Amino acid sequence: MNYQETIDYLYNQRPAFERQGAGGYKPGLQTSQDLDRLFGHPHRNYRIIHVAGTNGKGSVAHMLAAMLQLNGYRVGLFTSPHFVDFRERIRVDGEMITQDEVVQFVHEFHGMNYSGTPSFFELTSTMAFSHFARRRVDVAVIEAGLGGRLDSTNIVTPVLSVITNISLDHTEFLGDTLPQIAAEKAGIIKPGVPVVIGESNHETRPVFEHTARRLEAPITFAQDQPQVIDANHVAGKLQVATTKHGIVTCELAGDYQRHNINTALTAELVLEQIGFKLDREAVGRSFDRIAITTGLMGRWTTIANEPCRTICDSGHNIAGITAVAHQLAHEPYEHLHMVVGFMRDKDLRHILPLLPKCATYYYTQAFTPRALPAHDLRDMAVPLGLQGECYPDVMTALQAARTAAAPADLIYIGGSMYVLAELFAAQS
Fold this sequence. Notes:
Helix 15 links the parallel strand 15 (359-363) and strand 16. The relative contact order is 0.12. It is built from 17 helices and 17 strands.
């Protein structure tokens, strides 16, 4: 198979959750353990930091990867989903796995005559583990896919586990209460392995404490001794006052990143305790080099300033949209233009009321079976005071917003990572 045929094969193994929704969800570790055994347990060849959580796990994973890279470690990074190119998921020192290496992995898998039916994510995570072993990484930062306890990545034994936060998302799989979801995320905590909890509350903290106590895992709550004192916007970036590193500039400008930075800096302290050598200046500098170092995209990113400032962000659930709405309320503009599309499995009854009413909406949809049709989205939103029209695709919606916008206005693009994926693909 050539590269495109190989990618098609991966997606057709079992419909990927991100494309099909519930039909692509395959919980359980047996297949991942089988694949791991077939490929010689590749993840045992390097240290691992395992990151889970409802929101922020991608940002924190990239922060930790950048931090380690700038300290001279050879770093593997596995994240999901991708925006434009499948290979974004698997990187070593910021460089994507090559097309030939993707093809070679699948060719090798075919030669093993495995009788099971692995899912897209099971094969992809095994590919990442194998790639990192071949590239002889010192450490790999592994982002869990969905949940934690039954996620394909949870066959690893890390040197550090990180759980960013808990909010209501994917409730059909993980439970419909915060303690239930916290229990699933806490499934990545391993016996004797330290864990950092980025954010918790009175409902989720007891779950983490109980699990850590049962497994004798040292637990650190980033909120208890905050590493971030304050944060402000300066010249389009987030300027953060920290307890250890002084003033740190972060190129990820979302207000919510202060929590992710606090989580990453708390993880830094634990990493030092378990033997990682981290230079203070290099750690501080890493936050302003996350995108160029690791390839991170879509976190409160300014993509244009003509005809007006245009921002995109990957917030897509209740907690993410709450943060987006809060920051939009403090952005300077004369009028707000909202280009939005959502997946049909999101809790729009609670998400849509969070969106700003003093805006013009451009309802659209991504080209995926999971996408909610734009007209259905508009029919749900307009009665809530979110006035706007429907557009068949993201770029048509954005062009309409650009035509209507004045120089002092603001255009926001988001609602789903797949909306951003099509935006980035059109611009690449």
